[in-house]
Amino acid sequence: MYKIIIPLVLLLASCSYVPTISPYKIDIQQGNVVTQEMVSKLKPGMTKSQTKFVLGTPLITDAFHADRWDYVYLLKKGGKLLEQRKLTVVFEGDLLKRLEGDVAAATSEDTKAAENASAKPDEAQQNVKADQKNDGAKVEKEEKGFFGRMLEKIGL
Q1: How many C-beta neighbours within 10 Å does residue 105 have?
Q2: 16-49 residue pLDDT tens
Q3: What is the Cα–Cα distance from 21 to 27, expressed in whole angstroms?
Q4: What pTM was computed for the model?
Q5: Of 31, 102, 140, 151, which residue is 20 to 30 A from 134 by alpha carbon distance?
Q6: What architecture is domain 23-106?
Q7: What is the residue range of the signal peptide feature (predicted)?
């Protein structure tokens, strides 16, 4: 009887699931973060120094192709690749010729929309500053200081 029960119990125990313990994997961000806004600032004919100012120093500069800069960005969370972007900037001489890769250059409509959006915050900021000036004047009139309250109590 025990000869049948022991293998049966072992068979049932082997069917159970025990989760494995895995180590914690940190989030890894590698490369140059290149946004659509940054790419939209690039124009054909820009110099290498202007391009470097907009995008930053390239991650990869090819020794055999000095007129080609590669910008690569990877984001891994928990060991899984979430985001990967590649942008290749090609120069002819010292001037920007073309862009290749995942991040596309903006169209003229996108550029106009970005310019309009950037103009609106300036107007809003001026309105806020004007409101702050008005509020500051109201606070000074409504609230009296220590000596003002003392003079009021004396009757002057």
Answers
A1: 16
A2: 777 788 888 899 999 988 888 989 999 999 999 9
A3: 19
A4: 0.54
A5: 151
A6: 2-Layer Sandwich (3.30)
A7: 1-18
